[in-house]
Design goal:
Order of helices and strands: HHHHHHHHHHHH
Number of helices: 12
Strand content: under 5%
Structural class: mainly alpha
Shape: globular
Radius of gyration: 19 Å
Largest sheet: none
Number of strands: 0
Distance between the termini: 17 Å
Helix content: over 70%
Length: 242
Amino acid sequence: GALLLNVSAVFSLSTGGWVLPDGPLMPLMSAAADRIATLLFSDGAGAVASERPAPAVKSVFENWLWVGLLTGLAMLTKYHGVFVLAGTAGFLATTPRFRKWLATPGPYVSTLVALACFAPVIVWNSRHHWASFAFQGARAGGSLPSTGIHLDTFAANVGGQMAWVLPWIFVPLAASAWRALRAGPADEKRWFLLALAAGPIVGFTLVSLKGDVGLPHWQAPGWLFVFPLLGAGVAERLDGTR
């Protein structure tokens, strides 16, 4: 997965080589996802704090604080960081074994920490007519009038993503996402990664139906979380287990 990520043009050239907010965004999103995965999939996976021994309860709380801090820092680099919170909420809500986490304080404390980190952006915008939110919203929403569905700009957007990721990587990458979607919440780890990936990929691709192609690297933070799925698939083929 790491090898394929590093030979993909958008991650090696754009994210890895240009002065863009995506550079710090993606390691921070990855670090936040790693802390969440530790909470959910380590020993005693699925057990909420009340079901764990006292020392483990402290560890759970600390991990949620780390999730909030790392997500907040990701949001300071680029608004895409919010998809970590959205994807995690979506995963918890749609996965029966982990749904009980929504009745514990951890996810909400984490969200409050992230918002506290993000507070300078909110304060600045409140004093400047919400300028950056309006600007980014206009970019994401398209600069053209919304009159019908534009399949041409949708196709151009998908083609741009394919070109930037590189077609011979994009096709199996998309197939890996489709495999996770078909398996659904029953395959919890794949479903978790897909939940983190879905927001940027689906959201910014569907926006192009309004008639503005947009920029193909907007979906890259979502594809970042599909690369472990592709890496797992390649490893299975190399091992002859698939």
